[in-house]
Amino acid sequence: MPARDRLLALLVAVLWGCNFLAIHATLGQFPPVFAGGLRFAVIAIPTILFVPWPKVKIRHLLGYGLGFGTGQFAFLFIAMDTGMPTGLASLVLQASAPFTVLLGAVFLRERVSGRQLAGILLAVAGMATIAWQQAGNAALLPVILTLLGALSWAFGNLSTRKAAPDNPLNFVLWMSVVPPLPMFALSLAMEGPAEIGHSLTTLGTPTGLIGLGGLAYVVLFGTIVGSGIWTSLMRRNPAGVVAPFSLLVPVVGLSMAFLVLDERPSPLEVVAAAVVIGGVLFGSAKRRVREPDFLAEAETPQPTGVR
To answer: Which of 93, 148, 234, 266 has the fewest C-beta atoms under 10 angstroms from its C-beta?
Structure first.
């Protein structure tokens, strides 16, 4: 992998890690489910007008949009709105990788190697430790919601595998057409027109401007720029070389949350985070015997989400 591409991969990790700060800012102004709908609606409109159809079956696009888009971000945004620390959210969402491997084994009959299984067990042990620590602080529900977001992402990944799009970026952009309607419907039912209307009529306030800035970052840098660079890297380099750079996303997320939001994870949570990342990295390491690449199998078909 050329040095230029390594720097670009690092840039993407930084963009996606900072994305969680942008989500935090967005949720300061908009209700969580409505914010998720806005995030995709802003992308969906120009996509319909200017981006070519990705030439995949509609059912696969719907599956990806409902799993990766609707489910993941609805659960994630609600979790962060109800107390999930921004830095830990960026870490716990990495559970999508082992979830994808396990779901692939169940539904697609993909083989799970011993190395993958060991990596999954390590990651699960780290997640369980974080959940136990948060439960002691009466904050278990946000962790569970974030894990459900990761599980939804994993289901979306299965649809991506079945779709096998020729142009992954076009596929991701067209996926954005799916979530707005169900997310806006959920928002009306759960959050109500009064809360939605208040978030729109107060956009001129300092909090409103910060929320708009966060939304702009999520759309422009987290999705379009980040996903575009990531897709080009996947085309030019082996997936197993590029994919491990996504492990830097929670490192950036935790660091930025510490610097900007003064979030201070406990020593036990720091150790658990290292165990999670180590488990995913161990499961993704290649061996001489050909076997499915943990992260490539889990993440490769599409640019990473929260993105």
So the answer is: 266
